[in-house]
Amino acid sequence: MNIENTKAQMRKGVLEFCILSVLKDKEAYTSEILDTLKEARLLVVEGTVYPLLTRLKNDGLLNYRWEESTSGPPRKYYELTELGKTFLNELNGTWTELSDAVNIITKQNQ
């Protein structure tokens, strides 16, 4: 079994939750989202994030707007919709339950 593949699958499983959480209090463009994820040591690449942002937008969880940039091409700023905020609140509850359960199980096995 390849441990790196398993670790990558675990990261992918929480990436949507993390992206929505990054956008919880403010809008951001893709590079800012990626920087925040990297600062938290969640290693992702642009090729993973762009399709996910598109899917979240198509699902009605995100909106975006274009803004001109003085240092390059226009930037697409993402923000949560009301549906996205509700969805994130639900995920927060589920994450807490799941995290608590995993912590109980993994502590029992030490």
TrEMBL record:
A matching Pfam family: PadR
Domain Transcription regulator PadR N-terminal: 19-89
Recorded superkingdom: Bacteria
Name this polypeptide is given: PadR family transcriptional regulator
Organism: Flavobacterium stagni
